[in-house]
Structure formats: structure tokens, C-alpha cells
Amino acid sequence: MLRTPVNTIRLSSRRALSGSRIVANKETIETPSKLASTSSLPKIEQNLLKKSPRQPSKKSPFLSSNVIESDPNYKMAGWMQQIGQTVIRVFNIDMDASRSGPVAGSKYYGECKKQSLYYPNEPLSDSARFYYETLGLPQSFSQWFQITTLHYWILTVRMRAMPFKYGKNYQQKLVDRFFKDMELRMAEELGINSNRIIEGYLKEYHSQLLGCVLSYDEGLQTDDITLAAALWRNVFNGDPNADMRHIEALLGHVRQQLYVLNKMSDRQFGFGDFEFVPPNEVVTPLTKAQEAELAAAVKKSYEGKTLPSQRSSLSLDE
């Protein structure tokens, strides 16, 4: 079923949530959640070789206390919008560069952050349940970091395909917000009061992020076996008892995201029109006719975006 350009090529939620099977190109496809849950192997808890991880003692704002980020229904006053549009037009501001902050540093970082975000005594989101209950990963800040890093990498794969000037800017805004948020969460939620200790953790996490990106890039450039090994080392913490069906499910989940991103134009992605496909949905390949239909629908949706703040040199064709 072809959905709107924003949701692109997902199946309807009813079919996906039921974990029902479909046939595409004579292959049976299941949702990642359904595939992982079919394993009959006994669950063996990971040996973290350390004390129980420190859990959040309080809950900080999801992104920030800024009203534009904290309130999805916020709308700037008309006179403020007019002033802003005039400034953009008079000074010929490059909106593709300016847009990278709110899109990559806010919208896309929020997409990464929420995938496995959890708080004690609060119900898990569907995506977080996939990681902590279906895949059996431990609930800890370090585990959240690994899952968020995976989603960060998925987005940077697409960002690196944008024109270099803008792709680099989007990547920088995303990683800057990632580490700024971790710093605040360690201080506010985990109660770490020493700046020196926080800085030490941030350096260690930065090294881990670089290693993850390198290993995932290698998998992307080679084969699924290499990418699955990278997922096992990082997301599954190299657990010798990891369930291979779970690794396979996560690999399929990652491939789904990459496929959707590959079918999005630079402008779509640059305007923040991407959302991660939930693990209880499945993506099916588009036919040539569906691709043409989708491209036409996307172009039509952008026809009315003519304000100075909506100008863009990013392509709608690639």
C-alpha cells in the first residue's frame, strides 16, 4: 500500500501490527518485531561484568524547554513571521544551510533519541519495547547510546549523499546536539555532578561513536554478514549468547530505513520529512510505476512552498 510521501512505502498499520505475512517477489516478508519474536531459544541475560547500571532519577525535557521544540503545535505570531520572511528575502539567506539546525539538530535528533528512550516505572514506547523486551537488551544509558548511535549513523548515510556543503552541515548539527543532550542528561537525570567525569564519559562515547560508524560503513559497503557482525558487536555488546534471529531482525530493520531514505529526494530529506519506520511495520520494494507516482506526489506537495523561508536549491529528483 502506497502512503503519503512523508511515510513513503510502509504497509498499512493494521497489517503491520498484526505481523501478517505478505508475498513480494515470491519472498515471505515479516516485520522485524514478528521475526524476532518467532525465536524459540531460551533467553539468557547479558553478563555486563559490572554493577547494575545507574538509572535516571528524574526526567528532563525531551529536547529542550524552548517552546518551538517542546510544543509541536506552536505557531509564531504573524508579525514575527512577516519580519522573518523580510529579513530572509532582503539578505538572501541560504535557507538550506539555516534549516540544518532545526531539522538535523532538533527534528532528526529527536527521532534518534526516542527510539529506545526509557524511564523507570514508565511504559515503553513500541520501538523501545522492540529493543528492551523483544531483543532482550539491557536498559541502561550506554545501551540507549548504542541504539541512538545506530540511528544517527542511518541518518548520516543519507546526509553524506546530499550536496557536500549541506550534508556536512546537517551531520555537524546532528552530532553536536547528540553530545550536548548526553551531557545534560548525565548531569540532570543520572545525577553526575563532576564536569571532569562527564567530560571523560563524553570522550569515551565519542570514540565509541567513531568506531560504530566505521564498522557500520564497512558493513554497508560489503555485505549483510559484515553489517550483522557490526550490529552484534555494538548494539548486542558482543554477547556470545545473542540470539541470531534477533540480530537478523535488527539487520532487516536497519535495511528498511536505508531503503526508505534511498527513495527520498534531497529536498524531502532536507526539509525533515523522514521518520523511522517502526519495527512492527514492513517495507516492500517499490515498482517503477510506484516510484514515478511517488515522485509526482512529492513534487506536487512542494508546489505551494514559495515563501522566502521555504526556498531551497536541494533537488526534488535525487
Automatic annotation (TrEMBL):
Residues 133-276 form the Ubiquinol-cytochrome c chaperone domain. InterPro entries: Ubiq_cyt_c_chap, Ubiqinol_cyt_c_chaperone_CPB3. It holds the Pfam family Ubiq_cyt_C_chap. Belongs to the CBP3 family. This is Protein Cbp3p, mitochondrial. It comes from [Candida] anglica.
